[in-house]
Design goal:
17 helices; homodimer; Aminopeptidase; Alpha-Beta Plaits; alpha/beta; six-stranded mixed β-sheet; five-stranded mixed β-sheet
Amino acid sequence: MTSVLPSSRFLRRHLFGLVCATLAGTSGAQHVISPSQAEQFARQSFPAYLQFLSMPADAAKPADIQRNAAWLQEAFEARGFRTQALPNEGKPVVYAELPAGQPGRKTVLFYMHFDAQPVTPSEWQTDPWTPTLRARDAAGQWQTLPLSKLSTDPIDPEWRVFARAAADDKGPIIMFLAAIDALKAAGQLPEVNIKLLLDSEEEKGSPRLHSVMAAHQALLQSDGLIVYDGAMPASNQPGVSFGNRGSIQLDLTMFGPLSAQHSGHQGNVIPNPALGLSQLLATMKDQDGRVVIPGFYEGVHISEADRQQMAQMAPPPGALAKRLGLARLTTFAANPLEAVQYPSLDILGLSAGQVGAKAANAIPATAVASLNIRTVPETPPARMLGLVRQHLVDQGVHLIEGEVPTAQERSQFSRLARLTMLAYPSTSTAARVPMDSPLARWVLQGVKAPSRIEPEKVRMIGSTLPMSGAVDVLKMPYVVVPLVNADNNQHGADENMRLGNYLEGVRTIAAMLTTRLP
Amino acid sequence: MTSVLPSSRFLRRHLFGLVCATLAGTSGAQHVISPSQAEQFARQSFPAYLQFLSMPADAAKPADIQRNAAWLQEAFEARGFRTQALPNEGKPVVYAELPAGQPGRKTVLFYMHFDAQPVTPSEWQTDPWTPTLRARDAAGQWQTLPLSKLSTDPIDPEWRVFARAAADDKGPIIMFLAAIDALKAAGQLPEVNIKLLLDSEEEKGSPRLHSVMAAHQALLQSDGLIVYDGAMPASNQPGVSFGNRGSIQLDLTMFGPLSAQHSGHQGNVIPNPALGLSQLLATMKDQDGRVVIPGFYEGVHISEADRQQMAQMAPPPGALAKRLGLARLTTFAANPLEAVQYPSLDILGLSAGQVGAKAANAIPATAVASLNIRTVPETPPARMLGLVRQHLVDQGVHLIEGEVPTAQERSQFSRLARLTMLAYPSTSTAARVPMDSPLARWVLQGVKAPSRIEPEKVRMIGSTLPMSGAVDVLKMPYVVVPLVNADNNQHGADENMRLGNYLEGVRTIAAMLTTRLP
């Protein structure tokens, strides 16, 4: 999973102002696990962690997945969990559950994934499936340390374990096991019924997770879903995001002549579908980047409090623009954080004929634009599709139902186009949990407990989450709690897990498990 | 060469109205060669024609070209021409000349080409390099006739010789030889000094012909140039075109962020270059297809007489639209013939990101449109480039000079683009000979002579001619006189030459050669 807090590098400098802020409803979280206890149980978990990381887990390889899944079932069953391998075309998803210590407790489903991005070993300093321990020397260079230091020396929070999936997302799974062990040793019982769903294909976009969930809906049903995935803010301070935009892709094909026509013979004589397409696209947004399709933003309301919070956290003007090589950002929203709270419309691709030296002197027969609408919970996909359709009709376009226009349609309508919405997995659902909801308050309480630092609270991230479309099957509120260092190189070479984050992660999970969800 | 009279199938039905029209200045053309004489010398030329067609002449194969060139030199020298192989990187262009019968005569350069389109033999009924004689039976099916019929039977005008290059453009070369033979036999001396330029790479767009011409400018200098290439009107009636549009390609690249950006994280936050490009393109033309870039049509004047002639010849409304699958044509000009008398602007291609299933959820870093401007003599390429540049600047675009924007440009300008004009051979020159000029009158007189049918006169065709850019080197007026049947399948399988056109072609060439150019 990519960073769920993409703007967080800009939040850091504003964080000190937030540390002292009081958040209603997050008082009194337990310190069930002290830093020294965390270190003890983290240390105890390292052999399992190293073993787990030694097992390649390429989501494309069923044998990898099966081996990892079996390992996980054994690890959770050894801690009293009931487990189940949920069938998924040879790449089982692992389910595990443990009841709370008391009856009448709420149930939380924890989502993590054990599959990993594919690797290019030649780009790595050491073999990606052979974990190594490293620390930076005084010159800032990574030096390998003997793994034995993990059992002999006090843990330096700056040490890192290098291996594929060390952070994304095997690290959090082992932190979870360590937290369970720590609670047991402390005689603490979980204050929530625990369910775990450990995905086997997240790095491939969880293409079948929705089917797996649909087939086990009763088993998975819970009062909320926590996603332990993604990277923390660059500050390594706690952060939580309460929602994500959804995404749909609309392909707009404009039809011209039956076949490409010589631009000398027909130039001036017949309309050009590439121009027609450009003219339609030009009607969709204004110069400030605001979508002008009627009704596009209807129902979206951002509270004054949220707006102020985002204004405080927003990056300094120009910093993002400079990094991206732009003279300015779009100006329709007050700042980038606020901008992604609205639905957006972008052109992902344009295609007609050929360009440059490959261009034929021809008026193309068709021109295609692929549009991406990022939705918010208030602007569901079907409505957005309807609005775009209506806007095109308002521009005099006849939208065909078939694959290509019929002869009748060609003879009757001078602006012919097809608009199609791509199916799942190109469609992903928006979701947002109110920050003052019970689930959100419970999360914030747990996340704040170990460090007493007020978490960065992101109302909604601009991107989707890989499994959000599938999660939609369960109709559950969900919150994303990243636990790993921002600079973990996930998806790239030399992926690593910072042990300071590992220790804090164990404490955070333990705190959440021992906080009662109202 | 593709048809130089693209609209001519529509002209046919209006032709009868023109047959009786009187054209000033075309009186008194000689009937130097009667139909029976034409048949005699056509018949005599067939063995050479069949031999010439048996020699593959793929412009990509130097050995083919060399063999054909040597054959041509021999054929022309046998008729008293001085010939010369003009060096052209292994693919010689053949030059031949024969002085007029009297001193003080004007000089005409005749352009034809002996290279041929490549073939896909599997698509042909018979081997493309083995000429066959065929006629349609009562059921309309082609039946092969023995080649011996060409020497034993009277020639049926509907017979056809099938072979690659039979029509495009070896046929006219052999007709030329037959016309010379006929004149000699009749004791007629040419009334013009004859020069011939027989191109070897026309089907490849004559990429080096301009260099060959530049190297032999004095040799080739003449009072006018006649191009015997392209197909006659579908009516098989005489037709002449007096000009062609030019063509330039402008590539417009719009710059967005330094690299493609996640459309979830940045959607709404940063401008999208594909949208920016669409918005710019949309400003270039109105809904009628009229270019609204200021000054685009400046200097273009179509006389009322020309306008009326085109209105008479123009296709019935809807016929072209129907054939192309369009509800309507553009409406800014009165009819398609008039439309191509103006410069045009078309989008040949659009490219940004990817579309459809390949689309990434990313805001592309750049978006490119390739534009094609068809120029007319009054709107030269440099001026058109300047107008487009100025129009873009007027839209707030900063046009960079380099390949990519500098950091300074990126920080300073919010609408950054590059506009480049592709070099020759993507640039082709417009040319037009006034219909009342001496050369035009001479051509019309000769073309009308055999049949007494008033030729279809096309002021200017919409397309370029493959060699027009090169011809521009010679700064000579030129006129295109097509001699072969419209349905000759040039460039495709089963290319063929209708012998009725062959006979008329011999007479037409003879008539032109024996008419004095004032």
